[in-house]
Amino acid sequence: QVQLVESGGGLVQAGGSLRLSCAASGRTFSSCAMAWFRQVPGKVREFVAAISRNGGHTYYADSVKGRFAISRDNTKNTVPLQMNSLKPEDTAVYYCAARYSPYEDSVYYRESDFNSWGQGAQVTVSS
Length: 127
Description:
Distance between the termini: 39 Å
Radius of gyration: 14 Å
Helix content: under 10%
Shape: globular
């Protein structure tokens, strides 16, 4: 199991950009499919973006497609999420998640697919 720590959150105006990063510890990171989720208080956590363990496959929620980009660096054990053209409705706590997946280079997008989670990073977009 990996331990995950998010960073890079903050306050930005609508139309601006932010770059979140997820740092993972543990020897199995390169065998993990990764994803970002977000949650607004009082609402269910929702999927944002996912990437396979080798980085060959990515998948995005329709609400962020074309604006957000997920990537990974298996030499540094990091998963950045570049967020552009931010909107007030992107305001949420963003969570990094990992799923141990050593035998296939697949993406996962359901909350129940993941067994390791970070503590979250607040992103606030002002109008």
